[in-house]
Design brief:
The structure is a single chain. The protein is an all-alpha fold and 203 residues long. The chain contains ten helices and two strands, in the order αβααααβααααα. It has a two-stranded antiparallel ribbon with strand order 1-2. The protein is globular and about 40 Å long.
């Protein structure tokens, strides 16, 4: 990564230190992320779900906030945070561990990311599409599903966010592909799962 990359690592380290320092609410975390913009907020809220650290009760508010931030990015307005979500206290120990693990992952892979094909990101439609992709993955992340199902949508969110932040069209394209696969798989499971349950009901 470029100088921005080191900024991503430093900002992630700052958030981890903030989690270590005392109780953290979702509102406090959002306020700390807001200055870096919508894509950075989606990146930081999605990254912990790529780690093996369990985060009970966090995927729903984080997923909702990712969806809100991503839609806000698509339409070009500041993200709105519901008061009830702002007050939600986060599990400090788990969040700190997840952020620390995320930081280690970022430092190992950040050299792979670099500005490529930035010309595509100059088109407003590409940024809007990135917002839609992250919003859909955020909604999938917010679904009350079994453990292990958070990784796929989180991967789509992180790839799209890094692609936007670093101007890397290749990473962004991978993110779009992962997001599309997520929507397709979750949609198929929903449709065929519903049909299966209905067939059992009518037996």
């Amino acid at each position: 990564m470029s100088g921005t990359d080191s900024r991503l690592s430093k900002d992630l380290e700052r958030l981890r230190d903030m989690a270590d320092s005392g109780p953290m609410t979702l509102g406090g975390l959002i306020d700390a992320l807001n200055a870096r913009g919508h894509a950075f907020m989606c990146l930081i809220l999605g990254f912990p779900f790529l780690t093996p650290i369990p985060l009970p009760g966090v995927s729903i508010p984080f997923g909702v906030m990712i969806a809100i931030a991503a839609v806000s990015m698509s339409v070009g307005v500041p993200p709105w945070v519901p008061a009830a979500l702002r007050k939600k206290e986060l599990p400090r120990a788990q969040v700190s561990k997840a952020l620390g693990c995320s930081l280690n992952v970022l430092r190992k892979v950040e050299f792979l990311v670099k500005p490529r094909g930035r010309v595509f990101l100059r088109f407003p439609g590409v940024v809007r599409l990135a917002g839609v992709a992250m919003a859909l993955c955020g909604l999938l992340l917010a679904l009350p599903l079994p453990p292990g199902t958070n990784f796929p949508p989180a991967l789509g969110i992180v790839l799209v966010a890094i692609g936007v932040l670093e101007g890397d069209s290749i990473v962004l394209g991978l993110g779009f592909l992962v997001a599309l696969i997520n929507v397709g798989v979750f949609g198929a499971v929903s449709v065929f799962g519903f049909d299966y349950v209905r067939s059992l009901w009518h037996k």
